[in-house]
Specification:
By secondary structure, the protein is mainly alpha-helical. It has helices at about 10, 15-25, 75-90, 115-120, 120-135, 135-150, 155-170, 180-185, 185-200, 205-220, 230-250, 255-265, 275-290, 295-310, 320-335, 340-350, 355-365, 370-385, 390-405, 410-425, 425-435, 440-455, 460, 465-470, 475-485, 485-495, 500-515, 525-540, 540-555, 560-565, and strands spanning about 5, 30-35, 40-45, 50-55, 60-65. A hairpin with a 2-residue loop joins β4 and β5.
């Protein structure tokens, strides 16, 4: 959400703005400080004292954070209160209204936090920090993290504490972390991951491995008590796995490689990964990349079978787990066995989709199109029986590729039409069309349109207006748009019709505005409504537009957002 100091009231929830303004007016905002250029901090007295941090670039809000547990929207009332206070401070208003201390030098020029501490003696600075730390443990956490991260190396528990401190800062009273707080909860993990990257460059993989282990051990269980809809927690977990892969690339000594291999095989079976089978396979895939001996290969092979048997059905992804297991085994054979062994293993497991694709690709490279077609048809039949339409289409695409290589017009038409009807992709429609001459095509096009109209497949049916455009069937396209009475359909296709049918399109704009967009549907829809009215004006219907505005303003006079967009 884009916010600015000048316009934040118009884009945020009216109730949150009202409550935030009340907090500001009642002098609930205190200790407002400009820490550095663009970075502001303040305290807000609510049920408890909450800390708010806001980062600006000019007047645009780039980041904001509050320690309150509010998770029903992007911005809480405490952040709004501080935005009011910052705006007043930047405009030169009386600081006492916001309850914050006037932070100015004798010359009347605003003093930043950095300038203030530069004038303090070391003794004064220590006393101030000690006093503040007694009232705000966040300062203690920050100082501790700074010391640990600046040290040449630290213990595992110290990295763990940095990660936990960030999480604990934003937990609510029940220990849960909501959607809007999750991005701040991962701050500690992000800091230690940066340290791990430094270790990979300067200290080697052993030091870095400790950090990546800490991140996984803390952040994976954290997913159970947090809303990660935005993917912040999953993101740092992904970075930790990328770090393990980098450790594998640097595993040069036998001692570290052996220790790392043991860790990967042990960690993949840990209960913290229950429900997350993909991460179990990530450990095993990394392990497969560092094996060197037959004994290690046997241990890993056994572990793969154990994980597949015990955890392979977690989340209902058994087919995916089976294929992942086979792919890891093939990579092991490729590393430690012969090309013949690898090819035999691949051909023994053609039920694995990636293996079948590899086999088809090899057959095509050898120009053995009969074998390639046979393999693709078997895959199609297999996945039709499994009820996997996505894979069925994948095999059809391969069969179309093979038909094109063989210059087989009948097969090209067959698979191009099937793919178009199923996927609605005009690429296949045009491929099909190319196989007919100009005399044949008009009749054939009507047959295709008839098939699409009868189609039960949503993607295929949605291609209908695109066919009308392709074939320049403008009356049919207009009828489709009018029947839909959908603003988004009108938005997408009116550009093809407005010069040909201005009266009809103006009527469609009016109908969509009055019946669909004007009722209480939100500011975004009101903006589309005004865009439609603007287009009606350009078409010469100014009086009609004014009448619509008057009628809507009267009917929805209690809808301030609509009235504002209409310019009332």
């Amino acid at each position: 959400m884009k916010l600015s100091l000048n316009k934040f009231q118009s884009v945020l929830d009216e109730r949150i703005v009202s409550r935030g303004e009340e907090y500001f007016s009642n002098e609930a905002v205190s200790a407002l400080e400009q820490i550095t250029d663009g970075k502001w901090a303040a305290s807000v007295e609510g049920t408890e004292t909450y800390r708010v941090n806001i980062t600006l670039k000019g007047n645009d809000v780039r980041d904001y954070f509050c320690t309150c547990p509010y998770d029903l929207g992007p911005v809480c009332k405490h952040v709004v209160a501080v935005l009011f206070a910052i705006r007043e401070a930047k405009e030169g208003g009386e600081s006492k209204k916001s309850g914050h201390k006037d932070n100015r030098t004798d010359h009347g020029v605003e003093e930043t936090f950095e300038q203030a501490i530069s004038r303090m003696s070391p003794r004064e600075l220590r006393a101030t920090l000690t006093d503040y730390a007694a009232r705000d443990t966040n300062l203690v956490d920050h100082v501790f993290a700074s010391r640990v991260l600046k040290a040449p190396a630290s213990g595992k528990e110290q990295y763990r504490r940095i990660i936990r401190d960030s999480i604990n800062t934003v937990r609510d009273r029940h220990g849960y972390v909501g959607y809007w707080q999750a991005r701040h909860a991962v701050g500690g993990a992000e800091k230690v991951l940066e340290k791990a990257e430094d270790f990979l460059v300067s200290k080697g993989p052993a030091k870095a491995l400790l950090v990546f282990q800490c991140v996984l051990e803390e952040m994976v269980p954290f997913l159970q008590v947090a809303d990660d809809s935005n993917g912040d927690i999953g993101g740092v977990i992904g970075q930790a796995f990328e770090g393990l892969t980098k450790c594998a690339a640097q595993a040069k000594t036998s001692a570290f490689r052996g220790k790392f291999f043991d860790y990967l095989l042990t960690e993949c079976g840990h209960k913290r990964y229950e429900g997350w089978s993909e991460w179990r396979w990530d450990f095993l895939e990394i392990a497969a990349g560092i094996i060197k001996t037959a004994e290690e290969r046997d241990r890993l092979w056994t572990k793969i079978d154990e994980i597949e048997k015990k955890h392979g059905k977690e989340g209902g992804w058994f087919k995916y787990d089976h294929e992942r297991a086979l792919r890891i085994k093939l990579s092991m054979i490729s590393r430690t066995g012969t090309d013949k062994e690898a090819e035999e293993f691949l051909n023994q497991h053609l039920d694995c989709t990636p293996f079948r694709e590899q086999a088809i690709e090899k057959a095509i490279q050898k120009k053995d199109y009969d074998l390639a077609e046979k393999l693709a048809k078997e895959g199609l039949e297999q996945d039709q029986a499994r009820g996997l339409p996505g894979l069925v289409d994948r095999w059809r695409k391969r069969l179309l590729d093979i038909a094109q290589l063989r210059r087989d017009p009948q097969s090209i038409k067959k698979y191009a039409l099937e793919l178009f009807l199923d996927l609605g992709d005009l690429e296949y429609y045009r491929e099909y069309k190319k196989r007919f001459d100009s005399c044949e095509w008009p009749q054939e096009a009507e047959k295709v349109i008839h098939l699409v109209r009868r189609s039960q497949n949503g993607r295929g049916f949605l291609s209908l207006p695109h066919i009308y455009i392709e074939e320049k069937q403008w009356p049919e396209l207009l009828a489709y748009v009018e029947k839909a009475n959908n603003p988004w359909t009108l938005e997408e296709f009116s550009k093809h019709l407005v010069s040909r049918y201005p009266d009809e399109i103006a009527g469609a704009y009016e109908k969509a505005a009055v019946e669909v967009l004007a009722p209480p549907t939100g500011r975004g829809n009101y903006q589309v409504l005004c865009r439609f009215l603007g287009r009606m004006r350009k078409l010469g219907f100014k009086d009609r537009v004014q009448r619509i505005i008057s009628e809507l303003s009267e009917k929805y006079k209690n809808r301030p957002a609509l009235l504002e967009e209409l310019g009332m």
